[in-house]
Structures are given as C-alpha cells and as structure tokens.
Write a structure and sequence with these properties.
The chain folds into three domains: 100 residues, no CATH class; 40 residues, no CATH class; 172 residues, Rossmann fold. The protein is flat and about 70 Å long. The chain has a six-stranded mixed β-sheet. The protein has a three-stranded antiparallel β-sheet with strand order 1-3-2, with no helix packed on it. About 14% of the residues have low confidence. The chain is an alpha/beta fold. α7 packs parallel to α9 and α11 runs parallel beside α13. The protein is built from 15 helices and nine strands.
Length: 369
C-alpha cells in the first residue's frame, strides 16, 4: 500500500522492518506504528500520508482507535483485491475539507527519479535532489583492483609445492600425502589513498566528496582519507564511524580550513613528508579530487606531484569542472599537475561515480607508459 501511494520503500527498508518486528510486542499497535514510521519513512512530507495509510490498513478511525459500539465491516476478499484504491481517491476521502492538501506522485507508470539524477550536474541540482544524491552515494559499494602479494598461501592449484605441508604430514603419519599440496601468491585489494580539496572553489561538492570517502572507507579494507586547502588534515579515523551523519560531521570538524584558500603544493609537500612512507605502500592507488586552482607556488606543486607519482602505483585526478564540454585545463596548477597524472576523470554527477567504480576495479597490474 505504501508503494502504491508513491513512497519509495526499498528492499533494505523492508528487510529491516521485518527484522525489527522480532524486537517489539506485536500485540501493541503503537509499537508497530512507531517502528514502521522510523524505518519506512525517509521524508518529512510523507509522514501524514504514512499515518493515513497505516490507520486505513488496520481499519482504524483517524485518531488511531477503533470506533466504539460497532465493529468495522469486513469486505470480501475479491472486493478488496478489485478495489486497490488509487491514492488520489483515498486522500480526497480522508482529507475531506479540513485537512491540508498533500501532493502525491504516482510512480507506477514513471521511471525512477534516480535515472534523472544520473546525468544531472551537481551544481544544477536542487536541495531535494542533492539529498537524494547523498543517499545514493552513501549506499555505493566499491571494489579496488587486486594485486599479487609476496606472501604465499595454500591453494588447490599453484605454482610452488607446499613442502611445509608435506613435512607436517610426514611427521604426523610417517608417509607423504597422496596428493601434493600447492602454494600460490596471495591476492589482495590495493590500498586506496584519497585526497580532496576543501577550498572555497570546491565548497559546493566537498560534502558529497566526504560521503564518497565514507562509502569507500566502509567498502574497502585499506583506505586513507585526507583533506587539503591551506593545510593537510587526516580524517581516516572519523570516517570509520559506522553512522554516516556522525562520521561526516566528525570529519568536517577536523577540517579547520573548510572553504578557505588553496595551497595544493604545500599540502602535497606535507603529505609526502609525513604520510607517504606510511600509506603509499604495497602498490597504493591515489585519488585526488580538486579543480586545480593553485594560489601558491606552481613549481612546488610540480615537484611534489613528481614525487607522489613516483611513489604510488597509479595517480588519478578527479576534476568536477571536467564535466563541462567547454572546459580546458589551462590554469597554472592543473597544467603543472597533468604531466604526472595517469587518469584525468570527471566527477560532476552520479554517472561519473559509476564510471570511476568500474575504472578502479579494472586497473591494470602495471602502470602503462
């Protein structure tokens, strides 16, 4: 009934609601009501609609209690299935003349709003659309490219005999195992290092980028997150919090130069001196999100980019301005950084995030010339 009314109830919400029913008293209708409202309603403007549908489902009056003195009529099953009232007729009957009019969209014959948001630029979205984008970015799951480590593990098929296993079997049973055991190099996802620009020119997309960092931190085992503007800040511990709102708020409080100036070269220099030896190990992939507006020394940026490119497995630069057809990387900062960038990609809408996801999972094992 909620989906017919136009409420976007996902499968995860349905599963969470069913699981929550094990934790409440099903004979207490008030508990069922508050549980359903907490898990199935995501927008404030649909609260009134949810209450009306909930009370109608239980054949209750408006105040949530059964009318005294008479029992609610029970309609035949075939009549209920045939009726399947439209939400417009139901709302007109319930609201009468004393309730405010509620706008309801029937999504039965229309495509999802998510399809519309896929190719729309972040800078052109309304606050309501940005709220939907935040939810979609939060729910994204990422997969990094894999690498072969030097450590070897037991496997059904490998390239090296497992002599330790054979000797253990010999010491235990007095004879060699009937089938030889093999070892191969262990395969693990590559570490990810994320750096985002939080200066004034990036303020419009910086909070969406933090959600992107959060979804990556929750999906991958080895992710390091940094912000830079006039100084470098590490926000990895804050984004490990499971609650997305608390994580993003904690990360925002850690950044003291939010919407300030831009000194990319100095920030990268601080990263190379303090953190590169710790986090750029085992073939790490570095993602930089910035529009390339540099207020400091361009030659310093060129030097630090050369060192950063040498230390990592792959250097990817994401620019929100690259989504515009007329954009050309003519600023001094972007022009100085581009010779050391392996992949120059846009990050201006949801579709660009999906392309980035496929690109990260398909990275080659070796850097091309």
């Amino acid at each position: 009934m909620l989906r017919q009314a136009g409420l976007a109830i996902s499968l995860d919400q349905t599963i969470s609601f069913v699981r929550a029913l094990d934790w409440i008293d099903l004979t207490d209708r008030r508990q069922v009501f508050h549980t359903a409202r907490a898990l199935l309603v995501t927008r404030a403007e649909t609260l009134r609609l949810f209450e009306l549908i909930f009370h109608h489902f239980w054949r209750l009056s408006r105040d949530g209690e059964r009318p005294q003195g008479r029992k609610a009529p029970v309609a035949p099953r075939h009549d209920l299935e045939r009726k399947q009232f439209t939400i417009a007729t139901y709302m007109a009957f319930k609201a009468r003349q004393h309730d405010p009019e509620i706008e309801v969209t029937d999504r039965a014959a229309t495509f999802s709003n998510e399809e519309v948001l896929q190719h729309k630029n972040f800078s052109e979205m309304t606050p309501e659309e940005l709220a939907g984008v935040r939810r979609l970015i939060q729910e994204m799951r990422w997969q990094a490219s894999l690498r072969r480590t030097h450590r070897r593990v037991t496997a059904a098929r490998g390239d090296t005999l497992d002599l330790r296993h054979a000797l253990r079997q010999l010491a235990k049973t007095g004879c060699l195992p009937p089938r030889p055991a093999w070892r191969r190099r262990k395969i693990k996802p590559r570490p990810m290092v994320l750096l985002t620009d939080v200066s004034g020119s990036m303020e419009q997309v910086a909070r969406l980028v933090l959600l992107f960092f959060f979804s990556m931190s929750q999906s991958l085992p080895d992710v390091e997150c940094f912000t830079f503007g006039t100084r470098l800040a590490r926000i990895t511990p804050q984004l490990k919090i499971r609650n997305v709102d608390r994580a993003v708020d904690a990360a925002s409080r850690e950044v003291v130069d939010w919407a300030g100036g831009t000194r990319i070269g100095e920030s990268f220099g601080a990263f190379n001196r303090q953190w590169s030896r710790r986090v750029l190990r085992r073939g790490a992939v570095v993602l930089i999100i910035s529009d390339g507006w540099e207020r400091g020394d361009v030659s310093l940026l060129r030097t630090e980019m050369r060192y950063l490119h040498h230390r990592c497995h792959r250097l990817i630069w994401l620019n929100p301005l690259l989504g515009h057809a007329s954009y050309q990387p003519r600023t001094e900062g972007m022009a100085a950084a581009l010779p050391f960038v392996d992949d120059f990609l846009p990050v201006h809408n949801l579709h660009s995030f999906e392309q980035l996801s496929r690109h990260l999972s398909d990275l080659p094992s070796r850097r091309s010339g």
